[in-house]
């Protein structure tokens, strides 16, 4: 009873606005989800906007069209770049926040400037580098008589394996994510008192031991935030993946665009695959909303 | 601390930084240097790096007279200005309106960050579907209130409007949540004091709260500005720059010049100019007040 009495008019208005905004935020995502259960006929007719016979055909079709392959590629690239980013960023942030050495603030500025590089700008040199690396390996094989004549195992196939776009994507996603991760972790590290480390060093720990045994575990909340942001970028990234991957190494965001065909857009299938792609980030959001908001506001509010 | 300890510590610091430096060099610095070098060369798709032809400033001269580049710069600046202003005004308005902490705020905040987490490709696809001229929900509902169906993505003005709306949908929550956190972190003594001094709502908002948020606002604008210039996925999917060149932002133009027209050298030239514009705009913003300086203690 008390809580109802406590609801004055401005609180009611506040809830009304919040619910309205929540509907706007959720609406398009819900539409995607609902459409993924519609047949092409239902999608094309405007009468069956909300009432229709749900079907799993779209999902079946998606699963039958290399979804497992795209999924595996996406998982490999996202996890590899997330783990690499955390480790490398953790070490860099530790150096930048704890150890006194010349050149600390230039590196921090550099970090921010690097954040400005658009993926479209990177795509060009990356594409050329990757292509040339492949050609270089092929040349090498051509010039080596015994490799050139070898059939089994095929050295050309082996070379193609070495230029696997997924390795490239892992490297470039890590590079793109490092600035933010370092930036974020420095903020978290500053909240950890230095006394613990100093005591450990007095007790005879090496700097590396301090890092792996004390700092890394203490940084866990910061690492969780950094991991979410790194994963999100790697999982969602489209342009570099489009340029670097081929039939066998495509990630999910590239795979979904295959349904945008010349003959027309297969909306049901797109929405089914879209739903599957957004599940991991959405689950992350519900599990770790607090960390995500902490990460978003860290740069601006707390600095 | 003696000096040998310091030197040792310095060495360790660089060692800890080394992996990050290597990844930056391989993944960002070397490619960027290549882009810069390539901007003075001619290189078509499929050729080797060693086959590039040095052409001096030819690419730059060509670009100055290129209408396509000029129009993409215009589209980018217009797009950035409109979405930034719209998102700031809406985000700030909502943050002020909803700043009072209430029960269940966490649930709403969670919902609001969902658009930010969805893959840009999915965002582009969802909105392309919603705005579809024939089967889109937007036209369906507009029809019910008597507004005739529009070909949202088929006409230059409407297509531009459509990508603006999509960007606002996806990114306003970002600004809203940051500003909300900023508002709730304002020192309550100052607000209390001004209230006791008889400041009304308008005075509280525009003379006290907004000025106190200045540094946060600047960082937020800077981050969004960088992102607007970087992003192209949503537009890639929704319109691919069309109709005509009405939604062709610079990033997309660079992509098309490189991978559709297959002129990698010329694309690099435009890329260099894009980075230059971004740098100038960011420095200009930082001149206003340097939010980095205030937190340079890290």
β-sheet strand percentage of chain A: under 5%
Helix content of chain B: over 70%
> Which structural class fits the helix and strand makeup of chain A?
mainly alpha
How many DSSP helices of chain A? Answer: 16
Q: Reading side by side through the largest sheet of chain B, how are the strands ordered?
A: 1-2
What structural class do helix, strand and pairing data of chain B support?
mainly alpha
Number of strands of chain B: 2
Mean pLDDT of chain B: 85
Order of helices and strands of chain B: HEEHHHHHHHHHHHHH
| Beta-strand residue fraction of chain B | under 5%
How is the secondary structure organized here?
The complex is a heterodimer of chains A (303) and B (298).
Chain A: H1 2-6, H2 9-35, H3 40-44, H4 57-64, H5 67-98, H6 104-114, H7 119-143, H8 145-148, H9 155-162, H10 165-189, H11 195-202, H12 207-218, H13 220-236, H14 239-244, H15 252-256, E1 260-261, E2 264-265, H16 267-302
Antiparallel strand pairs in A: 1-2
Helix pairs in contact in A: 2-16, 4-16, 5-10, 5-13, 6-10, 7-9, 10-13, 11-12, 13-16
Chain B: H1 3-38, E1 41-42, E2 53-54, H2 58-64, H3 67-97, H4 105-117, H5 120-130, H6 137-144, H7 156-184, H8 188-196, H9 201-212, H10 214-230, H11 233-238, H12 250-259, H13 264-288, H14 291-294
Helix pairs in contact in B: 1-13, 3-7, 3-10, 4-7, 7-10, 10-13, 12-13
Overview of this protein structure:
The complex is a heterodimer of chains A (303) and B (298). Chain A is built from 16 helices and two strands. Chain A has 303 residues and is mainly α. In chain A, strand 1 (260-261) and strand 2 (264-265) form a beta hairpin. The longest helix of chain A has 36 residues, at 267-302. Chain A is flat, with a radius of gyration of 25 Å. The two termini of chain B are 21 Å apart. Chain B has helices spanning 3-38, 58-64, 67-97, 105-117, 120-130, 137-144, 156-184, 188-196, 201-212, 214-230, 233-238, 250-259, 264-288, 291-294; strands at residues 41-42, 53-54. Chain B is built from 14 helices and two strands. Chain B is mainly α. Chain B is globular, with a radius of gyration of 24 Å. Classes of the chains: A mainly alpha (303), B mainly alpha (298). At the A-B interface, helix 2, helix 5, helix 6, helix 7 and helix 10 of A face helix 1, helix 4, helix 5, helix 7 and helix 10 of B.
